[in-house]
Every structure is written in structure tokens, then in C-alpha cells.
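Dear colleagues,

As part of the handover before I leave the project, I'm documenting each prediction I ran so the next person doesn't have to rerun anything. This entry is a single chain, and its sequence is reproduced below.
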Amino acid sequence: MKVQSSVLVHLGYGKYVRSDQVTAVVPIESERGPGRRTFVHVEGQTNPLVASRAEDSIVRDLVQEPREVTQSRQQQEILQDLLVDLANINATVRRINRDEGGLDLDRLERRIRQILE
């Protein structure tokens, strides 16, 4: 498990903390109820925050990458695969695609390289 740095974790009811500042997540044993599910200890604070979310869901958010990061990584991998495939297309096929189909593979390849840089 790896805590993601500089990612906000939702504690419920509009409370958020940076994931890399959480030092402990403790379920509330007594007086637990709506809005009082988990104590979240945060670096630099003496008293824990009271979270309305269960400890397992908070921990899951702490150690998993945000969906946007995962999607971005997948999109980059797809673009890299596409570059490899584009490199295998010969000049004649590129010309036919550009002239007959309106698809400029050279321009597409340049744009993908710019995005990946």
C-alpha cells in the first residue's frame, strides 16, 4: 500500500484532508452514529477529526490512486501504443490516407509526441 501525496481525501460533510498528512484512522467505538464514524488523526493537530465515513472507505481512498490519475496513465499508454503502430505505416499508405481519406498520419504522430512530452 502506498499513500498518494497531495491528494485530498473526503471525510464526509465537506471535510477533506491531504492524504499524506493522515497519521491514523481509528473507528469510533462509543457514541458512534450518523456523522460520527471514524477518528482521523492528522499531522500537526493534537485532536483527531471526526469523519462521517467508515474507516475502511477512508483507508481505501488513502492508498488508491484517484480515478483521474489511473485514467490518465491508461490514456498515455494507449497513445504510446498508437505511436508504435503509426511508426510501422509506410510512406505510401500514409500518402493514400492523407490524400484519399483526409487523415494526415504524420500530423497525428507529431501531435501525440507533443502530448506525451
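The CA atoms of residues 6 and 13 lie 20 Å apart. The first strand starts at residue 8 and ends at 12.

All the best with the project,
I.
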